[in-house]
Design brief:
294 residues; alpha/beta; six-stranded mixed beta sheet; 33% helix; globular
Amino acid sequence: MTSILNPDIPAGAYDVFLPGALPRARAQRPWTPADGPLPALYLSHGAPPLFDDGPWIGELFAWAQSLPKPRSILIVSAHWEAAPLALSAPAAGTPLVYDFGGFHPRYYAMTYDTPDAGALARRVAAMMPDGEPVHQHPSRGLDHGAWVPLMAMYPLGDIPVLQLSMPTHDPGRLLELGARLAPLREEGVLVIGSGFMTHGLPFVTPEMLHRGVVPAWSSDFDAWAADALARGDVGELAAFRTRAPGMPYAHPTVDHYIPLFVTLGASGQAERPVTTVIDGYMIGFSKRSFQTVA
């Protein structure tokens, strides 16, 4: 029996996806100022198993196709926590960080050679206050919270991509960081917070792995988050440690949840309800992903 965790052909679903996706990606209409600001996105990014999940790949690609093609992408990932603020290496062909273990060698050979993002790096650095300088990392590449979902969304790899580190776990400060980034959306930059709506790795069971069982701690947390997002209740979302059902199992560490505050801040209207684009579960984890309303 094969599954996304034990495929006959590693990344085989991605291989099947590419021939049909590439012509559509080449035909995608580029963003223009007449389109107005792009939405900000929060996405559940998966890991190498995403490349073996054809429906999920298709959902991410369809999401990207529903938007004008951005001029560049700025992404804050759960997998880069660093203060003071830092930016990934902006040169063309930025290397990838294979920050996962135990998978087939093919996943460590995948590439995503994006164009130079130097202009975006200078723009982001200039947006930060004088008391909060931004470190330009000379060699840090794109981690899997960036390149895995982007290979599904923008398989041509022809959009400049830059990562910004996540400098704090404080929701209020992340909302403020996102708010500073909000003007980028009016310039055709797609701002993304990349995490996973539930991410209880220490509590994965064989039933979750092999039978797709969704534990109550995951479904209850997801339902709570969906309700708060639909109401624009930022205060409730920020109080997740004490208010959300399923804690701390849904997020034994908070890194995969809190990028959504960068997304909400970048919307310019953090208390406005969002639009869920992807839901459902993978290995019992909620894939809930959303975009802000422009």
